[in-house]
Amino acid sequence: MRNMSFAMTTEQVRLQAKTVTRRFGWWFLKAGDLVQPVEKGMGLQKGEKVKRIGVPIRIVSTRPERLLEITTEDCAREGFPHFATWQFVDMLCKHYKCTGTAICNRIEFEYTN
């Protein structure tokens, strides 16, 4: 089982309030795959260990999508119910140094408990 980092949304995953994530990669995922959410997957200091967040997640669906196509509903499913779509897009564009027209992988998942 692979680890997927949720460094920006650790608390949302811990509370199981997040059921969608957008990634620039992970194109190999398919429905039914199990993934372990972790706080941080890369850039660990010497001796630092990966910290799991709760239970594994099961992939429900994946699809390519432009960042600008996010809906208000998906902002909430991403763990940001108080964000307007432009706020979410702006946050991701700043973090990943991209534009709203960038194609990402919209990954829907469920918790296995």
What does this structure look like?
The chain is α+β, with helices and mostly antiparallel strands and 113 residues long. It has one domain (2-111): Sulfate adenylyltransferase (Roll). It contains 3 helices and 5 strands. The protein has a 5-stranded mixed sheet with strand order 1-3-4-5-2, with no helix packed on it. The longest helix has 12 residues, at 85-96. The model has no long low-confidence stretch (mean pLDDT 93).
Strand order of the largest sheet: 1-3-4-5-2
Beta-strand segment tally: 5
How many individual domains? 1
- CATH class equals Alpha Beta
CATH topology: Sulfate adenylyltransferase
Record the SSE blueprint.
Elements: E1 2-5, H1 10-14, E2 20-23, E3 34-38, E4 57-66, H2 72-77, H3 85-96, E5 103-111
Parallel strand pairs: 1-3
Antiparallel strand pairs: 2-5, 3-4, 4-5
Short description:
The protein has three helices and five strands. The protein has 113 residues and is an alpha+beta fold.
Task: Give me some keywords for this one.
single chain; 113 residues; alpha+beta; Sulfate adenylyltransferase; five-stranded mixed beta sheet; 3 helices; 5 strands; 20% helix; globular
